[in-house]
Amino acid sequence: GAVVSQHPSRVICKSGTSVKIECRSLDFQATTMFWYRQFPKQSLMLMATSNEGSKATYEQGVEKDKFLINHASLTLSTLTVTSAHPEDSSFYICSAGTSGRKNEQFFGPGTRLTVL
Amino acid sequence: DAKTTQPNSMESNEEEPVHLPCNHSTISGTDYIHWYRQLPSQGPEYVIHGLTSNVNNRMASLAIAEDRKSSTLILHRATLRDAAVYYCILPQGGSEKLVFGKGTKLTVNP
Hints:
Chain A is mostly beta strands. Chain A has strands at about 5, 10-15, 20-25, 30-40, 45-50, 55-60, 65-75, 75-80, 90-95, 105, 110-115. Chain B has strands at about 10-15, 20-25, 35-40, 45-50, 55, 60-65, 70-75, 85-90, 105-110. The interface of A and B includes residues 104 and 109 of A.
């Protein structure tokens, strides 16, 4: 149990376009979802925390107007990278927590974004 | 998050035990100790967590020092599939936020 999926797994887009990444908890209700970014050979960097039905809380230095997060239901959160540029190319990973297993987070497989 | 210190890398041989250390001298009394691992090109995976007592699960054991200023993740018999970056994380104050450091890159030799 406690599976998190992400879609798409890979995306290549042109500079200036917007890209939406979906994160779904498949067999549990996620009270909180998190979005991370990981550049090559670096660790994960937390971008934002989202709770269902409320606005996301962004970490310092993360542009909320560029990285739009929508947590529409207890099983779905989306991250939209608006007007993507080559420097936004990265590995984007979501995770989900549930109130029943508070000390565990369940991570998605990640989405590789390449902006040309 | 309370600061953690881990070695950058470690090596092990297949089927031998591996002890991955983590120092967290500024840990507070309510901080849980979490371990996650990340295999190449994948999202991280929960391994184990504990507060004061040693913990065991099917993946690993967590040995926590009596003063809680350090802990050790123990893989009892390393396999090639255990090659990953292992992260020791202390979310503060009951927060669900995980702040990842650089972790320890474990190489398992056949």
